[in-house]
Design goal:
493 residues, alpha/beta, Aldehyde Dehydrogenase, Chain A, domain 1, Aldehyde Dehydrogenase, Chain A, domain 2, 2 domains, 7-stranded mixed sheet, 6-stranded mixed sheet, 15 helices, 38% helix, binds NADP nicotinamide-adenine-dinucleotide phosphate
């Protein structure tokens, strides 16, 4: 059994309490590793180590910083299969998806390294002769990166990449369910020779260690991907010292299938959009609105495809692995139970697969006869459960899609360009996919409307969230205009 340490100030260390926590493989329910249970003291040490390294790191030319980041990407590439297997072991996604996530994680680092020569400011004319106004982008300082369990690798590099290129220093705290991928990535940065203290990692509970990282005065930016509820706690805890925030929170993506959509394509995409990563993706289709004229064809085809999905050991050729944990599995069960009590009709699923007695598996589940205001349509399920609602007009589809406190991703399948563009304009979501489901690209900003978050990641817009704007006023006249200075005279302005 491997016991992993934490990385603080360039050293691999134990928790100051000596306590460790088990990491459980969700497909076998067996403990697969131990990690340190950090204390608040450890969190403070990590922040101090980051702060101490900040000046030197920020003074490096961005292109020098990029060399470390690119080297770390190369180190990840060398062990990519191992990283993918670690990811599947701790999180449960099929190996195929883990390999793809690792490649995406490496791509994050390479993409953000490209910004080293593009940290652009502005030069503007002054209102006075021989003066100028420069707007610069400078590093923020200590960045705290809190990552979720559903993409334990990609969420780390999506945050660490832009932070390091910007000249910031970082403390990462991964999800307690899936800390191993983050540890393995930090090992790659160590092998890349990253200066001590620039990147630190603590493993421990969000409610103690995470809270300390967020509320500590050293922290200049908190970048967190996770649930809306925790996002709200972070907003409260960071308000004392006014830390900047990038919050990527929950979603409840509507998937609209209009009557003229290509049926097979819409079904294939809807299936993947819901059941990819066993339904545990923030941009997963969480509710399907189908044109009533197509419903009699779409619904049976969708149910048939859901039934055909192969569940099982994610290191074998399957489509869906387990839910990440027992408690998450129980959340899915409660959603379905409540829906059935509220009058929903179960079209398939609704149970743990009897042929998989070990592991946190849940069958692909499709519900009908659900009301727009029901829990399963309004709250994020974050698992392989989807309600299908019929709509009789395009306006009704858009209205119901927008009737949500969330606003992350949305989907529209239609051959009518006019309707597609109407949806793109009127859907109150940070992403609208027309006739496609992903892949989300690095050059597109990933951002949420409403309670799906603040800020955003990827693209130049996301990158710049890791920098601080600053204005510099320069007088190069040699003969300053002194008319507004003391002492005031008749000719003062
Ligand atoms: P979570 O429970 O909100 O946790 C996210 C991270 O925050 C974890 O590292 C967690 O640590 C930490 N944390 C918890 N409480 C904290 C606190 N009070 N202060 C500071 N840190 C705290 O989210 P999750 O269950 O891991 O992930 C699933 C959620 O993430 C879903 O809602 C999903 O929609 C969302 N998500 C959003 C996006 C997006 O881009 N919008 C992407 C992926 C996932 P512990 O693990 O120790 O509690």
């Amino acid at each position: 059994m491997t016991e992993y340490k934490m990385y603080i100030g360039g050293e691999w260390v134990d928790s100051s309490s000596g306590a460790t926590t088990s990491v459980i493989n969700p497909s076998s329910e067996v403990v697969c590793a131990k990690v340190q249970s950090a204390t608040v003291e450890d969190a403070k040490k990590a922040l101090d180590a980051a702060q101490d390294s900040f000046d030197d790191w920020a003074k490096l030319a961005p292109i020098e910083r990029a060399r470390y980041v690119l080297k770390a990407a190369d180190e990840m590439e060398k062990v990519s299969e191992d990283l993918a297997r670690t990811l599947t072991m701790e999180q449960g996604k099929p190996l195929f998806e883990s390999r793809s996530e690792i490649q995406g994680s490496i791509a994050n680092l390479r993409y953000f390294a490209e910004f080293a020569r593009r940290i652009q400011g502005d030069v503007l004319p002054s209102d006075y002769p021989y003066r100028t106004v420069m707007i610069l982008r400078v590093p923020l300082g200590v960045v705290v990166a809190l990552t979720p369990w559903n993409f334990p690798s990609a969420m780390v590099t999506r945050k660490v990449g832009p932070a390091l290129i910007s000249g910031d220093v970082v403390v990462v705290k991964p999800s307690s369910y899936t800390p191993l991928s983050a540890i393995r990535i930090v090992q790659c940065f160590e092998r890349a020779g990253l200066p001590k203290g620039v990147l630190n990692l603590v493993t421990g509970s969000g409610s103690t260690v995470g809270r300390e990282l967020v509320s500590n005065n050293n922290t200049q930016l908190v970048t967190m991907t996770g649930s809306t509820e925790v996002g709200k706690e972070i907003m409260r805890d960071s308000s004392n010292h006014v830390a900047r925030l990038v919050l990527e929170l929950g979603g409840k993506a509507p998937f609209i299938v209009w009557g003229d959509a290509e049926l097979d394509w819409a079904v294939k995409n809807a299936i993947w959009a819901r059941f990819w990563n066993a339904g545990q993706t923030c941009i997963c289709a969480e509710r399907i609105y189908v044109d009533e004229r197509l419903a009699s064809k779409f619904i049976p085809a969708f149910v048939k495809a859901a039934k055909a999905l192969r569940l099982g050991d994610p290191t074998t050729q399957v489509d869906m692995g387990p839910q990440v944990s027992k408690s998450e599995l129980e959340v899915r069960e409660k959603f379905v139970q409540k829906s059935l009590e509220e009058g929903a009709k179960l079209l398939t699923g609704g149970a743990r697969p009897p042929y998989l007695p070990k592991g946190y598996y849940y069958e692909p589940t499709v519900l009908e006869n659900v009301a727009q205001d029901s829990t399963v349509v309004q709250e994020e399920v974050f698992g392989p459960v989807v309600p299908i609602l019929k709509v009789s007009s395009f306006e009704e589809a858009l209205e119901k899609a927008n009737d949500s406190k969330y606003g992350l991703a949305s989907y529209i399948f239609t051959k009518d360009l006019g309707l597609a563009m109407k949806a793109a304009n009127e859907l109150r979501f940070g992403e609208t996919y027309i006739n496609q489901v992903g892949p989300e690209l690095l050059q597109g900003i990933h951002t949420g409307f409403k309670q799906s978050g603040v800020g955003g990641e990827n693209s130049q817009y996301g990158f710049y969230n890791y920098t601080q704007l600053k204005t510099v006023y320069v007088d190069y006249s040699g003969k300053p205009d002194t008319t507004y200075l003391f002492p005031y005279t008749e000719s003062s302005r």
